[in-house]
Design brief:
The strands form five sheets. An eight-stranded parallel sheet has the order 12-11-10-9-6-5-4-13. A six-stranded antiparallel sheet has the order 14-17-18-23-20-21, covered by helices on one side. It is an alpha/beta fold. It is built from 14 helices and 23 strands. The chain has two domains: 369 residues, Alpha-Beta Barrel (TIM Barrel), CATH 3.20.20; 124 residues, Sandwich (Chondroitinase Ac, Chain A, domain 3). The radius of gyration is 24 Å and the shape is globular. A hairpin with a 2-residue loop joins β17 and β18. Bound molecules: (2R,3S,4R,5S)-2-(hydroxymethyl)piperidine-3,4,5-triol. (2R,3S,4R,5S)-2-(hydroxymethyl)piperidine-3,4,5-triol (DGJ) binds next to loops. (2R,3S,4R,5S)-2-(hydroxymethyl)piperidine-3,4,5-triol binds next to loops.
Length: 498
Amino acid sequence: MPRLVKAGNSTQLLVDNTPYLILGGELGNSSASSNEYMRPVWPKLKQMNLNTVIAPVYWELMEPNEGKFDLSLVDSLIKNARLNNMKLVLLWFGSWKNSMSCYVPEWVKTDIKRFPRALNKDGVQQEILTPFNRDNLEADKKAFVTLMQHVRQIDGRQNIVIAVQVENEIGMLGSARSYDPAANAAFSQPVPEQLLRYLRKNKNNGDWEDVFGKGVATDEYFMAWSFAKYVNEIATAGKAVYDLPMYVNAALNRPGWNPGQYPSGGPVPHLRDIWKAGAPGIDLLAPDIYFPDLQHWCDLYSRSGDALFIPEIRFEKDDDAKAFFVFGHYNCLSFSPFSIESAEHPESEPIGKAYSILRQISPLIVKYQPLGKVSGFLLSKDSLSQSVTVGDYRLIVKHDYTLPWSPGSRDGAWPLTGCTIIAVSPDEFYVAGTGVVVTFASTTTGKRAGLLRVDEGVFQNGKWIPGRRLNGDQNNQGRDIRIPMNEYSIQRVTLYQY
Ligand code: DGJ
């Protein structure tokens, strides 16, 4: 079974008993609802060297009539992933998709008596199922369990499906909490013991406002707890029939916005502990990254040993550099640009080129990650140079345009560049990436580091096949390692000290 395991300080996703990095792409929301539409998409995904597709399963199409299930779209995803030699992560678009309940079946949408809605502060119904209702939960759970049973039945041996996202970007909109009658009743109840115990504040009994104070922050804690409990029950029921890793994804809190303006109570960084307390059946809280400061969000989601799993990131030019950075720096488990099939020229897409390299070095990354021997770097005009010490060497990585003779050095805009560096022995490193210049310094005072030899090459079936010996202009007469802008390569570097 695909599963998450601890290795040293990092978490690894085991697929077919081997640590696996998701070099993924998420499909646009509606793409997987039509096999016809998907037909030309699969070859595109292959051209971009994806090893995993992240694809939605739609409750409305899976259970168009209550209790009558149609799993043909899921079958087709699994079949095509297998034919294309890829793995799948399924997204359960159930009760909530980007806060809204737009993917619930028509028989749920139209029966608001049986399947009640969340209300905003003014008492106005939203197209959002309230999490404070058993019928809502049971209907979703039944469908989800049916999905998991089906996946186990058709895929339990081959394991094309390697993880499941439960719901999508949960959170209340319109106000920070729901004001439906069941929500109001729950809000005036004592804060659940389970949460208090987790927060180690159990001396502080009382209702939500007694414990946390009055304000939108409390409303948001309350929603986070309620969403977490709801989703936990769904995930746990699904895991009981088929125990795959399960995660929830977050629409991030836009700086300066209030809960309710962004989806209130979703698995955002400041609600991590509430989600962990309420949803122990969820393995990972995962950020959807559409804001510019990648490092800020990754830092928040990898605190205290949490595994970073990026199910969605904005599909843009410098995703190549970002992928090299996150796999090297954060022990990241998944990288996945959203709406990946929208690539117009898949053959020349930067992320495809990065994946081609990352595919080759994945076995090295997962082998040396638990030993702390893998580093990742992201360079920009605002961050021209970074350094890290590994064993006896200081690695200094700079943007390619810092070289005055680099053709782009006088350009106004500098694209992001990045690399992954793996130390495989005290004097030997693999540098893989794009648009970087790397120099090495000795950590011993009075000594200098030199390049003994540098080979460019590829890994074929895990075996290193050297190509050109790089020297002269290619490594600045022995001074540094360079992968020029718009080039993608792996270089094996052996150092010495003098
Ligand atoms: C994040 C959501 O999770 C996706 O399903 C999609 O709606 C994107 N936003 C669109 O940017």
